[in-house]
Write a structure and sequence with these properties.
Bound molecules: 2-acetamido-2-deoxy-beta-D-glucopyranose
Radius of gyration: 19 Å
Low-confidence stretches: 1-22
Distance between the termini: 36 Å
Number of strands: 15
Largest sheet: 8 strands, antiparallel
Order of helices and strands: HHEEEEEEEEEEEEEEHHE
CATH architecture: Sandwich
Strand order of the largest sheet: 1-4-13-6-7-8-9-15
Structural class: mainly beta
Shape: globular
CATH class: Mainly Beta
Length: 289
């Protein structure tokens, strides 16, 4: 349980007390929980399968997915993004219900940049088939210099996107106000590395420089804790799951402070305030919601 080191002893204890056998354990190796979905030749196991390297070159990008689907929980992994001149590359880490019509999806997309210019993290939330809820944040560190933890917490109260310990996005459950919230469909965990230089960097102005290829990204500490589906419906409804606990139903005071800091200093785009796209403010964006 190497990733538990970042917890305080108390939260670790609470976590252990709340442990239930239906919750999947932390995988030791990539292939225990994941499989390659795109371009086998471009994903290499390293460190005995406890880490992987993704490759993007002119022949192909690549991708992987969890073998199972989960209803509520938390997924996290450590990622070291493409270094140097990564303009035009996109690394995605997301959950997806894999249903065409009424898709639910929670996205992290890392948009590369020219050497020395900041990576952008775009997040999006699809609920009951509707997305178009992009937000963009500039990272306050170089995500290619070292591994950082990216996680998605998903419970009955909200969805929170974290970069290390810092919440960068919160999507609350406002079903009571008629706002859709992903709740009914299990989601799988996915990641891809690909080329999208028609839109990724400065809106597509900066093209990928293939003379810098191959591009590499690294992943480790794969951690999925959630209710595996198909499985007993009672698991997802169980308020004793640690991710449903009172500490996870809203941001802690410390998290709320960090979130405010991100909102003030690092948000570079928010669909909520994009009047040309949304002359009428989307309901989930209204103050007090
Ligand atoms: C890349 O760097 C430019 C200049 O600093 C910045 O405007 C842009 O938001 C950065 N990110 C992307 C993905 O274009």
């Amino acid at each position: 349980m190497a990733t538990s080191l970042r917890y305080s002893a108390l939260s670790l204890l609470l976590h252990l007390l709340a442990f239930s056998p239906s919750v999947s354990a932390r995988p030791a190796t990539f292939f225990q929980d994941f499989h390659v979905t795109w371009a086998d030749s471009h994903i290499k196991q390293i460190e005995g399968g406890r880490a992987i390297q993704l490759v993007l070159d002119q022949n192909s990008g690549c991708g992987f997915a969890s073998k199972g689907q989960y209803l509520f929980g938390r997924v996290s992994m450590k990622i070291k993004l493409v270094p140097g001149d990564s303009a035009g590359t996109v690394t995605a880490f997301y959950m997806n219900s894999d249903t065409d019509t009424i898709r639910d999806e929670l996205d992290f997309e890392f948009l590369g940049n020219r050497t020395g210019q900041p990576y952008t993290v775009q997040t999006n939330v699809y609920a009951h088939g509707k997305g178009d809820r992009e937000q963009r944040v500039n990272l306050w560190f170089d995500p290619a210099a070292d591994f950082h933890t990216y996680s998605i917490l998903w419970n009955h109260h909200h969805v929170v996107f974290y970069v290390d310990e810092v919440p960068i996005r919160v999507y609350k459950n406002n079903e009571a106000r008629g706002i859709p919230f992903p709740k009914f469909q299990p989601m799988g965990v996915y990641s891809t590395l690909w080329e999208a230089d028609d839109w990724a960097t400065r809106g597509g102005l900066e093209k990928i420089d293939w003379s810098k290829a191959p591009f590499f990204a690294y992943y480790k500490d794969f951690d999925i804790e959630g209710c595996p589906m198909p499985g007993p419906a009672s698991c997802a409804a169980n308020p004793a799951n640690w991710w449903e606990g009172s500490n996870y139903q809203q941001l802690s005071a410390m998290e709320a402070r960090r979130y405010r800091w991100v909102r003030l200093n690092h948000v570079i785009y928010d669909y909520c305030t994009d009047k040309s796209r949304y002359p009428v403010t989307p309901p989930e964006c209204l103050a007090g919601i």
